[in-house]
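REQUEST
  id: r-88c1
  op: predict_structure
  target: Phosphate transport system permease protein PstA
  payload:
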Amino acid sequence: MSRVLFASAVAFSLLMLLVLVIRIFTQGIGWLEWDLFTSFASRNPEDAGIKAAFIGTIWMMGLTAPISFVLGVGTAIYLEQYAKPNRFTALIQTNISNLAGVPSVVFGLLGLTIFVREMAMGRSLLAGALTMSLLILPIIVVSSQEAIRAVPADMKQASYAMGATTWQTIYRVVLPASIPGILTGNILALSRAIGETAPLIMIGALTYIAFLPESIMSQFTVMPIQIFNWTNRPQEEFHMVAAAGIVVLLFMLLLMNSIAVFIRNKFQRRF
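RESPONSE
  id: r-88c1
  status: 200
  body:
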């Protein structure tokens, strides 16, 4: 009985997802023109575009990905290979696991307090990227730890037996063997980050700008915020433009995931 209920719930969820995707495509496909990518936001839906939001999203992901990868994987390596098991490391591990379930708006408040105000970064791309990195770090750390733990102990012991140091073993044995799992965790984390709105709104990301970012300290907007702004407009045409923006965002997500999966599979075949 439970299996039947589970299968019915899964089928219903897939059906609702299919209906939602079809509705978005039918509403937005007519607005997917080149002008959508070359125009800034406007009060007139016929002239509205996603140029600033599209470029801002690319900037945001380009900054968030390396920051979160280095910090997340570095933390996982330290906890798994260097840190001794004690109460302190157990406390850190528990907090990291709990942070994965914290609402994203809390990370927005944290970013507003630390990066925007205390560190005087203002409403900049760098402040947004650091805030988004805080949001996805727990996911990256936990998934990277699981990938590192999955490396057979015999491989590590063989490296140590050959006279390798701890870092040499990590660099030459552990990371190559665990990189597919690590990249999978990063894919999931960045997939969450690219669609987040609340943290960026909390730090003061703009809903309307008519310029492109010139540096990491520039003000910005991103696709989710622009889409959120359009869906709140009373004109039905803005809802159509928002649907077109959602289609573009989905394609960006699929492209990003495809590239990451390709890299992961390449490493998996190699090692």
